[in-house]
Every structure is written in structure tokens, then in C-alpha cells.
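Note to self: user wants both folds in one dump. Writing first protein now.
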Amino acid sequence: MAMLERTDWAELRERRMGEPGAWEAYQAARLAFELGRAVRELRQRRAWSQAELARTAGMTQSAVARFEAGGTVPTLPVLGRLAEALDADLDVRVTPRSAA
């Protein structure tokens, strides 16, 4: 039986990122994580539980928990309800990365 060749994390990541759709999935996961973190920070500044935010935003506590953990990318209406519940502005922008 031949010995299996070990792959380090960098090699594995590079190979996976080369697969179709991998980069897009990575970017979606990053966005979900960043949005969840921002909402969690605002909720914690208010000293609210997830249940309190959920009740105020018309959601379930489990939906808030999944969102804060980066497990889902919410729709714009859901982001709007979360922002309203947190007395925050929702600012969605598309900006150029460099001067054209």
C-alpha cells in the first residue's frame, strides 16, 4: 500500500480556490461574516439579547443567531428591519476599487 502524500493548508486552500465557484462562495461567506459581526456589535452595545433583537425586528432568535454567526446572507429587507430595530442606518453602496 502506497503512503498518502500529505498536503499542507496553503496547498489545499490554493487547490480548492481553483475550483469553479470557489472564489464567489468565499466572498459570500466573507460578506455574511462581516454583516453578522456588525449587527452583533450594535446589538451588544445596546446590551440586548438575540431574543430582544429578534422580537424588535420581527424575526426569530435562531434566525438572528444564524445571521450573527455568518451562516446566512440576509435580503435587503431583512437588513433594513435589523437596522431599524437597532436604530441604525443601512448604507448599501457600490464603489469603484480604483480610479477609472
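First done. Writing the second protein, which came from a different request thread.
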Amino acid sequence: MTGRGFSRLRVAARVLLVSLSFSVLSVQTLMAQEPAVDPGEAPAAPRQPVSIDNTVEDRAIAERLGGILVSTGWFENPTVEVREGVVFLDGAAGSQDHRRWAGELAANTQGTVAVVNRIEVRADLRSTFGRAGEESTRLYRQAVQAWPLVLLALIIAVATFLVAALIGRFARSFLSERISSPLLRSVVVRAITIPVFLLGIYFVLQVAGLTSLAVTVLGGTGLIGIVIGFAFRDIAENFLASLLLSTRNPFRSGDLIDVAGHVGIVQNLNTRSTVLLTLDGNHVQIPNATVFKSIIKNYSSIPSRRAEFLVGIGYDSSTAKAQALITQVLRDHPAVLDNPEPLVLVDQLGAATVDLRVQYWFDSATYSPAKINSALLRLSKNALLSGGIEMPDPAREVVFPQGVPVYRGDRPAAKAPRAPSKKKTPPVDEKAVTLGEGNLRSETREAADRPKGDIPESSENLLKG
């Protein structure tokens, strides 16, 4: 930068210092000339008309108003001119409130017909700093007057919070043995502590002098609850459903259930959904409202389950013998329970077969229904074929595209009948379990032993077990 640039910079700095000094002196002078009336308070026009003792004349009105404006000290060079009852106000005011006050004063003066308010509001640097100083002084005075109330309000708020926390801890320990559901217990504790906290907020607003606001807060709490309930209806419905499910406990963690068309092992119940681990290894989240409204089939609620399958035999075969053979297969299998006893019932007489319905009970916590069904069907087929029981195909429609030949008169000589062929003896497999059927172990245990990964929303579980 050149020497000329430095000289310009020094001149600008000197001008800025002179301006600031003048501004400070102006503020001090303005504060020294302030009247005894508190400038921070908004001036109010007289409620009663200003009376004049003598006969109401233009000169009397002008002298009376001029004296009042000068005595306030709020105006610079105030002049009042009255012609035929019309008051003309001139001069300068420090704020719009002062200018408005002068106009209302003139309008309320006896004998005034109209008011022409030509008072200007000062907008120079001195008036701006003066108003800023006045506002700062007013705020400082209000803060000094209000700090004891603020301190008292803070003490009440902290004390209310501590009391609410203490009451909540006592209520939680008192209800821990009486309410088993953790969600319901949490809701009851909040229902006890929230009114205590709202009462403390009411006291704080009362101390602050906001009585109407305190009443509005307490009265509007119910309205806010209704509005939130309509806005978040689905969320509230799922929350209430989770509350009821955790209270009634229709299933536990690890149970195999069928709900809303999904079969899986219960992993988690949170405030929004129920998480299932399906038998094919996927996580399914079902909204609690859907779970609560749907039919729930719990396969793990009792240790035993009943399964069944159909077997068709020919009409020429002995039904009683077939029943005896299948019953023996059921009794010999280790997975089938003896009590209740297995049953082999004639279900219906079909078009080509006599259908037998086979029913048996097994331990669902240990064995898989699909694997047991596979083993029993295999063994029943072998037993029936080995016992000479026919198992024909269902009746079929036979189509002859070339037609059926019809003979009239002498038929051609029939060929010599063939010797009946010997039927092959079916292979007999007496094993209760084959390699393809695995170990008959329940899929619930197999799924529980597999890595589950990250369970969605598993931070909380409202179920027992």
C-alpha cells in the first residue's frame, strides 16, 4: 500500500473516532436532559378532557397545549397554532408513542374541533442511540425486579422434577410385584408422575404472574391429547395393542405361532410390532394392532399336537386289515404318542378308492410334523403293499382317439390267454427314520439354533420368557 493510501486510512480513522465521540456526548446530553417521567413507559393520553377556565378561545387552547408539551420534555421546539378550533402541532418527538400522545392530548382538549399532527419523529443518530439507551435501561430495571421471581420459579421447577422422579421410583418399586407387564407398569408410573410435573409447571407460571397461561396449560392438556390421538391414530392403536398383548400374554418368546397368515417363532414384542422368525429364516414384523385382531394359533402352548393324513385302498381289499396294518405302524413308531391313541378311520368312499383318515398325536416340542408325516406315509405304504392291500389310482377318463372297434357276427379267434405275471414284491423298509427325513427334530429347535442376525427393534421386549 502507498503512502497516500496510509494517509487516507488515517483520515478515515480520525473521522470515525470523532463521530463516535460525538455520538457518546449526544447520548450523555440526552440522558441528562431526560425528565423525571419514566421514558420507557408508553405515554397515555388524559382520560378526561382538558378543561380551560376562561372562555374557550383559539389563543387559550394554543397556550394551554404548548405549555403541556414543553413541560413533558419529550418534544423539541414544540409549537401549537389554533385556527377556528383546528389545532396544528409542529416540532419533533423522540418516538411514535410521544407523537401519538400529543395528538390525543390535543383531541381531548375542550374546544378542539380537529387536530393536524405535524410533529416529526427524530431519526438522527442521537435519537437512535437515545432510544436504545432508554430501552436498555428499561430492560435492566425489569430484570432487576424479576430475578427473585425467576430464581423462585427455577427452584420450584427443580423441586417438582425431583419429587416426580422420587414418586415414580416409589411407584415402580410398589408395582413391580403387582403388575407383571413392564409396558403396563411403565404406563401406570407415567400416569402418576406426569400430573405431579404439570402441577409444578402450574406453580411456576403462577409465580411468574402468568395465571391465564397456567390455566390454559392445564385445560389444554386434554385437548392436546385428543388432537395427538387423531393425528397418530395408527401409532396409538399399535401402542394400546402392545399394552394388551403384554398383559394377556397369548404367546411367549420362542413360541411357534401362526398369526395373520405368517408362521414363525416369536422373537420380540415392542410398542409397534411383533417380530417373528419364519421357518425359512426370515424376520417378519407384524403391527400389534393386526396381531391383536387376528386369530392366533400357538403351536407351543401345549406339549403335544395332532396330525393326520389320508390313504386310499381298493374296494377289493379288506378295510379292517388295512386299518390294523396302519395302526401297527403308528404304534411301533417312537415319535407317535400312545395316549391319546392313534386312530385309522374310514373317511369316505371315493370313486375308485376307500379313503382312510389316519390321526395320531406327537410331541411338537421335539419332533417336526412334516418329517413325522413323511416317515409314517412311507411305512404305511410298505405295510399295506406287503399285506396284499391294493392302492389303486383314482378313476381317470380314458380317451380313444382312433375309436373303439365294433364286431358283428363271427368274432376273430381269440388268442390264447397269457400266463398271469407274478407281481413284484415291493421293497420293505422298516426304518423309522431315513436319511432324507433327517432326525425328525422340530423345526422350532433347529431355527432357534441357527444364527438369528439382528432382530429388528430388539432394544425392548415386552414378552415374558
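Dump finished. Worth passing along: The two ends are 82 Å apart (CA to CA).
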